[in-house]
Amino acid sequence: MRNDDFGYYLREQDLIPWWGYQVWLGAAKSRAIAWLLTALLTGLLFGGAFWFRGSGAAQLWYHQWRFTKSNATELDRIRSLDYLVHQLGRVAQGSPSPAASSASGFAARFRQLWSPPIPPPKPDVVLQPVLRPLERSEVSQTFVQDVERLVMKSRSATLHDVLLPLLIRQIYTPNPNVRLRIHQILLYFRKTDFPGSLPKSKDPDPLEKWTPNKDESPAKVDEYMRLWELWWEKARARPPVLGTPNPPEPTPASS
Known about the structure:
By secondary structure, the chain is mostly helical. The chain has helices at 6-12, 18-25, 28-54, 56-68, 74-93, 106-114, 123-131, 141-153, 160-169, 176-193, 206-209, 218-235.
């Protein structure tokens, strides 16, 4: 008698029950383990998908990571840019969580479960991780342009208290081109949104005259950063007026 006939012989003689033969000598045990693992993995995948859809923090982190990723495709960067602009727009509008659907039925409830209401994030939580890469000495031109688009497309008086101090701190960047672009953005905001803060004196404005370059010492950069901080301390006390002129075209950093 062959070894593979042993279990069959025991079952035929009613020496072991049917379930015992299937579990210990048949393929039921391996099938059960395989089905159990499949069900577990499927449950984890669906659970993770539902958690991600309902977690504003997870979605925000994902789009921030994709926005700052050095080898991200253009389509990925555009999608993440649109997502970040949308989130900052929700903050600017002071929008509450999206209203729950009033429709009834299983389909409506499933849509609400799949896309649950997510409260708007805090603006600094959105902006800080996105602006942090500007502190590097090597920053791609594409990323700098994406940050400029994000700043301009999400421009709002509600965000000034968070955005402008963050931009002013980025003047410390060792990259002179990034420093120049940030300086130009700040000049644009000062002219269009805070016209009342423009200097009244006929003397040359040191901030207008400043052109960041690679030969500046950290002390010199700190001096202009302090001038921007001093301007903001005075300007923030006045209500901003969102102007609409076009931003100035960036000029290359002088060597």
